[in-house]
Amino acid sequence: MGKSKVLVVGGTGYIGRRIVKACLAEGHETYVVQRPELGLQIEKLQMLLSFKKQGAHLVQASFSDHNSLVDAVKKVDVVISAISGVHFRTHCITLQSKLVDAIKEAGNVKRFLPSEFGLDPARMGDALEPGRVTFVDKMSVRKLIEEANIPFTYISANLFAGYFAGSLSQMGSFVPPRDKVHLFGDGTLKAVFLDEDDVATYTVKAIDDPRTLNKTLYLRPPENILSQAELIGIWEKLIGKELEKTYIPPEGFLTTLKGLDYKLQVGIGHFYHIFYEGCLTNFEIGEEGAEASKLYPEVNYKRMDEYLKVYV
Question: Where do the NmrA-like domain residues begin and end (predicted)?
Fold first, then answer.
């Protein structure tokens, strides 16, 4: 069988642009949605044109124009949505209902990967307010996909390194501190950190794989399953210095959270489940899922000691 033709929706975004790159690198005929709503966002336009130079096809389509979405979907075998789900930027997850409608009408798509790429929303039913809205919205999209009998793969990519590793999981910064650091609880619960390019690589590997059909693909490369304390230890070794540590108890974290802007509460509230409950690693992957590094051992994923070197 030949490689699938792929449509990427949200291809100029944080993870979307990496997925476009990975599709091209894997030899897929790649289509990227170009929305007329881009207007004067010249950086996004130039990114789209750079994709075109690399061999991607640009497709005019809009969430406000159902027929244009259907026409775009009909060109491909696989649709990957990477539209934003981060509240402090833009949160567009529920817009995917329009994409589901287009895929259903087109009737030709053999795999749809909705925009998830984080914590598995199916395991977050008891998430704190207001952060639980992220998972409620993603589950509402899943419901539409499954009711329409659209073949799917859900990607649980855990923690993007740009957000959580480079900062040593500190709030309010994306660069690692050099003097003082805060740890959540005792800092020993395990999380999973991934270079965003590796997220894209694993995602694209899965689209033609029957082992990931109608399953959740968990990205858990074993050497990147680390506690916050272990991540800090890697940084201390790189800079040859021990940081002054402050340990934040759960009640102290929740008190701080309440004083934040709503959009920040949504995102930072997820820290509680990750670092105080260990929600990324406190379960075994069952028959409904698969683990990416086991399926694709050929991927030489970036370890966090290598990732953090750029910050030294």
Answer: 3-308
Q: From its phi and psi, is residue 161 left (phi > 0), alpha (psi between -120 and 50) or beta?
A: alpha
DSSP state of 227: E
Region 217-235: what's the mean pLDDT?
98
- C-alpha span between 145 and 104 (Å, rounded): 9
Cβ atoms 158, 192 nearer than 8 A? yes
Q: Is the dihedral of CA 20, 297, 288, 116 positive or negative?
A: negative
- β-partners of residue 14 are none
User: What pLDDT is stored for residue 268 in this prediction?
Assistant: 87
Q: What is the DSSP secondary structure assignment for residue 37, as one 8-state letter?
A: G
| Cis ω for the linkage preceding 130 (within 30 of 0) | yes
Residue 232, both tokens: 């800090």
Residue in this structure with the two tokens 């033709």, named with its chain if needed: 5
Residue 42 and residue 50 in contact, taking contact as beta carbons nearer than 8 Å: no
If DSSP codes are grouped into helix, strand and coil, which group holds residue 5?
coil
pTM over 0.90: yes
Instruction: Give tens-digit pLDDT for 256-268.
Output: 888 888 888 888 8
Structure tokens at 152: 């799917």
Q: 220 or 258: which carries more pLDDT confidence?
A: 220
Out of 21, 104, 138, 302, the active site residue is 138
> Is 52 among the catalytic positions?
no
